[in-house]
Amino acid sequence: MHCIKCGCEESKVVDSRSIEEGNSIRRRRECLNCKYRFTTYEKLEYTPIIVVKKNGLRQQFDRNKIINGILRSCEKRPVTIEQVEQIVDEIEMELHNSLEKEVEASKIGDMVIAKLKDLDEIAYVRFASVYRQFKDINEFKRELNKLLK
Known about the structure:
alpha+beta
C-alpha cells in the first residue's frame, strides 16, 4: 500500500475494524518512512451473477428488481423494508455461495417465493400469482390449497 503523502510502499497496520456486516475491513495505517497515518478499505469482491431469463436473454443480477417485486407484493402488509432487504441479502448470498456464474430467473423466483411463504402468506400469494402467471382461478385455488396444508 503506497503512502498518500510520500509514496513509500512500506506501512504498518495500526488498527483494523470490520464494517458493513463483516463484508469490509477498515484499516488505519502508518507510513514507516514519514509516519503519516491514513485509512484504507478492503471490500469483498464478488463475481457478477448472470440471470438467464425465460426467453434466453442474459442480464446481470439486479437486487433492486427483486426488492421492487417483493415490495409490490407486500403493499399494505406488516412487512418492513428491513425484512425485504434481509430476504434479498439472503438470496444474493446463497447465489454467490453456489458458485454458479449463471442462474435461471425461475430459480431466483422460487427462492423469493420460499422466503415470502415464511414471512407473510398474503405477500406470498400475491408474488406467486404474478410470478407463476396463473391462467385461471383454479391455478390460484391450487396454490392456496398448498398454502393451507
